[in-house]
Request: fold
Amino acid sequence: MTQTIINPTPKDYKSEVKPTWCPGCGDFGVLNATFRGLAELKLPTDQTVVVSGIGCSSRFPHFMKTFGFHSVHGRALPVAQGLKMARPDLNVITVGGDGDFFSIGAGHLVHAALRNIDITVVVMDNEIYGLTKGQTSPTSPQGHVTKSTPYGLLASQFNPIATALSLNVSFVARGYSAKPKELAALIQQGVQHKGFSFIHALSPCPTFYHTFDAWDAAVTPIEAEHDTHDKAKAIALALETERQYTGIFFKEERTTMDQAAHQQVQQSRPFDIEQYMKRYA
Amino acid sequence: MENEVTIRIGGESGEGTISGGDILALASARWGYHVYTFRTFPAEILGGPCMFQVRISDHPVKSMGDYADVLICLNKEAYDRNIGELRHGGVLIYDPSDFTPDQSDCITYAVPFNEIARKEVQLFQTKNMVMLGAICGLFGPPLEAIIQVVQSKLSRSRKANATLMEKNLLALDVAKKYVTEKITKSDPYLLGPVEKADRVVLNGNQAIVAGALAAQCRYFSGYPITPASDIMEGMAKELPQVGGTFLQAEDEIAALASVLGASYGGMRAMTATSGPGFSLMTELIGLSSMAELPVVIVDAQRAGPSTGMPTKMEQSDLSFALYAGHGDTPRIVIAPSSVANCYDLIIQAFEMAERYQMPVLFLTDQSLTARVESVDRHIFKTPELHERLQYNTNGSSSNGHHGSYAHEQMLVGAGTGAHDYARYANTTTGISPMSTPGTGSPAYVATGLEHDEAGHPDYEPEDHIAMMEKRFRKLATAAEEMPQPERYGDADATIGVIGWGSTEGTIQEAVDRARAQGYKVAALHPKVLSPLPDKAIQEFINSVDKVIVPENNYSGQLANLLGAKYGLKAIRVNKFGGIPFTASEILRAIEEVR
Ligand SMILES: Cc1ncc(C[n+]2csc(CCOP(=O)(O)OP(=O)(O)O)c2C)c(N)n1
Ligand code: SF4
Ligand SMILES: [Mg+2]
Reply:
């Protein structure tokens, strides 16, 4: 039996499965922020689906009491979009790592942005591949030395926020796992946003790439006066890479593809095969 | 044969060869004849050689015909390419202004298509109507049958205008008059009047779309690829009208991933692709099988490997469909054999996907996607459907229409209550009651990781063993519950033919002809290739002395499977040029058995 909880607390979103993450992993902060954000919204667990790919971060759905779909590496976005197109009544949240969304699944990000299907993405960025033990990812800094880049990473660093803005994503924000309250508020607003919302969550991996100190120093809240409809300013902030601005960079309301598709559906009629076959008579 | 003719038209793509052929097929079918078409497409987007063949008969047609009885060549290249397919003593129709044929063992009729279109109709585009008019005058069907089809086609076309219609009618009329007055008919082919019948005329892909809609498929996602694109386009057009949604994906991985998302959401969902796209889907086929999500995947096979020959047929994805994916991955594989079969088997594909909660791969092929057949209308009726086994909040399970399955007994400690809802309950059938988000039933996590009954990640050896056995148990259940293939031909046959997919009609025609010659032959054509109907196949193999396995592939993929499973040493007959078998090719194989 599922019972609807009238005033849920963050704890009500926590499953009995114990997280497999290393002690101190940034993903704990993101998980707690998610519990909090969903509790604020009073999202019913049985009408909410958390979709992920593969990675340390993608274990996420197992730790939540909502419905979950732990798919394969890089494919969380298309799974989530298919689910939302078929079931626009559900709340769909997609989670995973920088490898998932910016490397193997990067192609899907472009199209999710163009479609503006009403789902929320939370990327836990630790600037490496955690689960496979520390190799470089698209967000690793140039020169970064790992087992797969013993002489230093030659490629340049991927900029998630600037990319999302250039793709015309309709809600773009960044949070930090060490500031779960602020991150919870962003997740709350992202889920509330009608359209594709992208939340870049800095989430360090103390085991393979300890970035807590660097991010403690670099993280700077976007000033309160920032106009979240000013894309040029948003891009300027995103390109200032010595700082890691947190908060909402940009948001706008546009038609979502799931809405538009379901408007068509509203005029539909039940299928009648005999009627249908007349075209071939 | 009386009231039967096979007409082949060879020409240049874009000059109406194919559309003229389609009109001929449709008009003949509406007039009461059975039709069966075969066509080739050029590699070019515009222009390039193409051909259309239609077999028209007053009795049911099972194959495309061994040879053309009538060959119409709209240019010299068409003549060079197709003359080898004209039967000895057949009819060649050509325009003397194009070329002079050097063939002597056929009847030749010279018809100035170009001149009639250009000078008398004064619209060169009507050349295909001139051709149709000539066909009507020489063989049938009556002109009115053609006119009706042309009128209804034009009335739906954007190019329609009164002048064009008038010119088309004039072209038909002038050409018919020309052949009646100027040509002394010396061939035996004539389509006389027949009784009207209640039939529809459509191709394999159209039947798949109709079947998917009838099966209540309400989500489709795909990525364009020949020869599966028109399934996608059909679903794109129809789904919104019946309450479904459609998504053109960025690639085939995304297509199948999104279909799995929709299926997780409780929707009957499907994708359609061809070899290259199917290759990209393999990782997600494994996910579907592991997470136990129902999904139907159509693979419209084309000649491979790699990009291969996109517009040519082959039956070369069977091995891949049976084994695609890493790990031991139960799946169902179904292959339709005819246009009618595309309809009823795609419905069965959805039923099996929902019942056994696993991927169903549906292997059609290029020839069947484009094959137009006349089909009795009564087979297109509303199917009886069964919902997937639902988990109800009171802990019981039901499948909607049938109430609960009494034999879905929990084997080991399936829990109760929200937190330990056993999504993957280890039941005697292997089938576990499923919960759907947003329906008041308990939450769970669908996962590709090995898991316990509750869906929690679990790598314990005994649990992996139990879950692997549970997933495969569903295949055993399916094998028990599915219909068995029926033997065609002699009960006391000494020669057996086992085929799969689009070759069934051709094999049956060969069996009929062999039996008429005194051979004792029978055929078996399993539609479900995973799980194989072991009993029926074993019995069939044991009942005959020799088994021929004709396949349109190089390596003999079904023959390999039958060899591995049943120790069968088959007589392999492989054709892999991109063209389907003719009945005479299979008949020859039967005659050669010793
Ligand atoms: C197709 C495929 N390739 C490779 C892997 C191995 N793999 C698992 S997780 C992962 C990268 C994880 O990095 P990220 O997405 O950043 O997640 P994190 O573990 O850092 O949270 C890789 C390469 C896989 N599971 N599937
Ligand atoms: S390896 Fe890194 S990312 Fe993975 S759980 Fe440990 S700390 Fe977290
Ligand atoms: Mg990572």
